[in-house]
Amino acid sequence: MQTRNQNDTTLTNKEKYRRLCNEKPIPLFMQAWWLDAVTMPEGKQWEVLLAEENGKIVAAMPYHLLRKWGFKIIIQPQLTQYTGVWIDYPQDCTLHKRYSFEKRAMDNLIDRLEALNPLFYAQNFYYSLTNWQPFYWRGFEQTTRYSYILKNISDSNAVFENMHPRYRQKIRKCEQELELDFNLSPEEFYRFHKQSLQEKHDGIVYSKQLFLSIFQAAAEQGKGQIIAVRNKNNELLSAVFFVWDENSGYNLITVRKIINGSNDASVFTIWQVVEYLKNRTKNYDFEGSMIEGVALRNQYLGAEQMPYFHISKSYSKLFSLYKLFNRA
User: Fold this and answer.
1) Which of 120, 139, 221, 250 is deepest in the core (most CB within 10 A)?
2) Structure pTM?
3) CA distances to 197, 226, 229, 257, 284 from 254, in Å
């Protein structure tokens, strides 16, 4: 293992990347502290591939590494919407030079990725990266998925007016009937989510240990908060755990208790999140969903549909068949 030194040549990729995260506007889910939080509790690993030119890092691909049946598998960590490729573009880069730069950087990363000999690779690329052709030319596949984003939330009045009238009515009604709770503990949040899923005969898919790790890390960074809503009887109706960086807030987990089929409390909670974040970040990302009902709710809240790329490649025909049969 290489040890830390002022000379870059003696630093590991992760050490270089940690320093890069402190110097450049790396998106939240690609930050080293976030990757620590979502992998260490489960005893898993993250690493990073770096493309360098003239001693400078020009592109990075942090990745979550699993070992299955003795093989390496690279997939998204739980509760992590985007990873993929980050590129440090040159200033005053013309369009054709930009494309050439992207291809050169991505080819460099792909070479390093394939040198790992993974059995399978899959990542969600951050939506700001719109060119995945270099991966296509190297045999990767792409599926377009959608997130929904409220833009320019600093003007919360404009955000409110852009909502469906029925949702505005819900919020105004809830303002009179419900109470906010900014002090719900992470343990209570997890218990509330687990119980709400049990009532639907469903199970929670992330561990308490993982959630507490993420909450603690986000709190230490000053980038995470839980907002809950209660009725006048102090009954917990809805809660949202959200995180943010300078560019965007992210709707990480929403929990709601269904009462007579109503989602009024969860709509009100999301509105309170927007109010909380309007002076802390620029946008609010609902983290998508390809589920029709969730997408419709996001549309009614006035969010803009935003495509992002799911990039994958299987290096084993047997594994491809395994995934196909399990999907069926």
Assistant:
1) 250
2) 0.91
3) 12, 10, 12, 10, 14
